[in-house]
Write a structure and sequence with these properties.
It contains twelve helices and no strands. The chain is mostly helical and 340 residues long. The chain has one domain. α1 crosses α10, α2 packs across α8 and α2 crosses α9. The longest helix is centred in the C-terminal third of the chain and has 31 residues. The radius of gyration is 20 Å and the shape is globular. It starts with a helix and ends with a helix. 43% of the residues are buried.
């Protein structure tokens, strides 16, 4: 169930970006952070002293995301280099372009410096949404030293993250500045985005819900419906409040999904595969939209212009196909090699 959840969270990010469904993208990214905090903390707390060492931990995390990331930027670079003169990729995403400066090249290759602790983005990126992976990587480091086997630290970090947001909002209210729209500080800044990660870490210390499987599926459906309804309504009023609420709401969904897996663990090939497709989907969706525009010969004049339905349909087809091929022929073979 958690594998399926990871896949759908990645798809929700794509819906938010390409379909312009504003209230979905940010909660989906925070859902990733909740899920990451939950799985990483639970995994480390279960391992032996050697397996839980920092170097082993970092090696495993890098091998989990880096092959997909390198393959995605290599693919994007070839496409933009060959066809950039026919259609400007910056009309898909204003950052989608081949990096030119040393900082941009370094950041694109090593996934370091794409953002400054979650605030700001580099001007040219072959994978414009990759900033979230850098922030997540920083969360793993903080989480490893502060949130593993330290439940009190989990609660303190969650409290401080919310406090930072509230103080920031109070200052803006006092200064009579608009606080309706969430800025990067209130959404992706490391100290703030540790809030969903800490919620996931906290839930990892709790035992699974022990009720019948039918009740668990009903609980899961109710959590999803209530979360979607609340976010849809709240985002009309305040994107900041909607983003903050998404963390505990996503936490409830993740915890019920974990309880379902604990009751009836499903280990089918396709469930594992769609879970592994989450990172490639997240990394490739902008360049797949660009390829769809090229193939259909559609002209775009700005990033604000909505995508046509044929472009969206072809983007999804390319995205799912490429993500599956990445998992099958790149991620899994490399993971097996380094695991030995």
């Amino acid at each position: 169930m958690l594998d399926s959840l990871r896949f759908f969270l990645a798809c929700f990010v794509v819906l938010g970006h390409l379909h312009k469904v504003e209230f979905i993208a940010a909660p989906a990214v925070w859902g990733f952070f909740v899920l990451s905090g939950f799985l990483i903390t639970k995994s480390i707390n279960k391992r032996s002293q050697y397996d839980a060492s920092f170097l082993v931990f970092i090696k495993r995390r890098v091998m989990r995301i880096y092959p997909s990331y390198i393959a995605s930027i290599f693919f994007a670079m070839i496409v933009i280099y060959l066809f950039g003169s026919k259609a400007n990729p910056e009309f898909i995403n204003q950052s989608l372009s081949i990096p030119e400066t040393f900082r941009e090249i370094f950041s694109n290759i090593f996934l370091i410096g794409t953002t400054t602790f979650g605030v700001g983005r580099i001007d040219s990126s072959l994978s414009p949404s990759s900033w979230a992976l850098e922030v997540e990587f920083l969360m793993w480091i903080v989480g490893f030293f502060l949130l593993t086997s330290k439940l009190r630290c989990v609660l303190v970090i969650a409290f401080l993250s919310v406090l930072i947001v509230l103080v920031y909002l109070l200052v803006r209210v006092v200064l009579d500045v608009d606080v309706i729209l969430a800025s990067q500080f209130l959404y992706s800044f490391l100290l703030v985005s540790l809030f969903p990660y800490a919620i996931g870490a906290f839930l990892s210390y709790l035992p699974a819900i022990k009720v019948g499987i039918r009740w668990l599926y009903m609980m899961f459906g109710c959590c999803v419906f209530v979360s979607a309804s609340i976010l849809f309504v709240v985002y009309e009023v305040s994107a900041t409040l909607g983003t903050l609420l998404s963390a505990p709401l996503m936490g409830g969904i993740v915890f019920v999904a974990f309880s379902i897996d604990s009751t009836t663990p499903l280990r089918s090939y396709w469930l594992k595969t769609i879970g592994d497709m989450a990172y490639p989907i997240y990394l490739l969706h902008w360049v797949c939209a660009y390829v769809a525009v090229l193939l259909l010969g559609v002209s775009r004049l700005s990033t604000a212009e909505p995508f046509t339905y044929p472009v969206l349909a072809l983007s999804w087809l390319l995205l799912l196909l490429l993500a599956y091929l990445y998992v099958l022929y790149i991620e899994r073979p490399l993971f097996n090699v380094f695991r030995k």
